Amino acid sequence: MSFISRVYQPIAYGKPYKHTYLCYSTKLQSPLDQENVNEKIRHSSLLKVVERDPKALTPIEKVVRGGKDATYSGVIIVAFGLTAILIWAFFSEFFSSNSLNSLFTRTLKVIREDENVRRVLGEPIRGFGEHTGWNRRRHIDHVPYKVGDSDHMRIEYNVRGQRRMGRVNADLKKDGRGRYQIRYLLIRLEGIPEGTLIVQDSR
Amino acid sequence: MDDIESLYREPCPWRIVDDAGGGFAIGAIGGGIFSFYKGIRFSSPGFKSRAWSGVQALKARGPVYGGNFAVWGGLFSTMDCCLMSLRGKEDPWNSVVAGATASGMLALRTGMVGMIGAAIGGAIILGLIESIPIAMTRYQATQQREMTFQQAPDPSILGKQDVSTLHRH
Q: Do A138 and B90 touch (CB under 8 A)?
């Protein structure tokens, strides 16, 4: 086996185009003079084609490759940009005290610590937003607005206790240091009897 | 609050089944398309043979992908519900932590290091997914803030507001 492969390997694997071409042309021309034939081949244009560097590109191929490279790098850059935006959104939402999520957390904490609310709603008190797709209740209704130069925000979400549930209305205003402070915080109770619990009113 | 029914319905135990089913649908459809393509790609030439091979691959692999996704979705949703119940609120942190726990649990057999790696990967993916609505909401909020709103009246139950304190805060 090793003998056979040693014999056939150069033919099977190590045969460049140039060599093929030479064999072919010598056969065709039925040469009288081998040197003459070789001379002819050396000056023919075909030989140049055969001998050209396989890595070199024609202008059309260059254009095609350039277009491909530009498209791919564009896609990669856009993807990186989108990922960066998402990462920025993530960090600014979760590690900032003025984000919607932290306003939700802060107001819910105030509500949970209120004795009256705990008595009326019943513990444990759970907070959640609006229904969105896939049975998630994450969306918190909010309206940012301005009075003069100061930023305000109104948020609404739901709370549910052991006994009753209600809808939280909160108005927040940015103080001098740019941090939202609660202006008022109240819970409108759902169901009967109707009622409103005023948790905080610091207007 | 357009749908009053949905407010009273607790989503949580049933959501696990929903998510497992949704995961199966996504996995079966996406994985089916993927394996159909793979079957076509790696078959012997000829239209008939390629089509047959694609269908065979789809039949063999599509439901498997569906099952994998269903397991992931069910586990993730279970974790999400547990966290919601424990923390008493629904927010994106639940998802992120649930994603980390779910993928960590699925990598249980690879050992501690593999589990931690899978958990971090799951957390990153879920964090990115959760960031999409956040980014959209923030973009809308910035656009909304540009328009100066008239202050809506405060709820009347709070009583008349002392006008002198309005701009002082």
A: yes
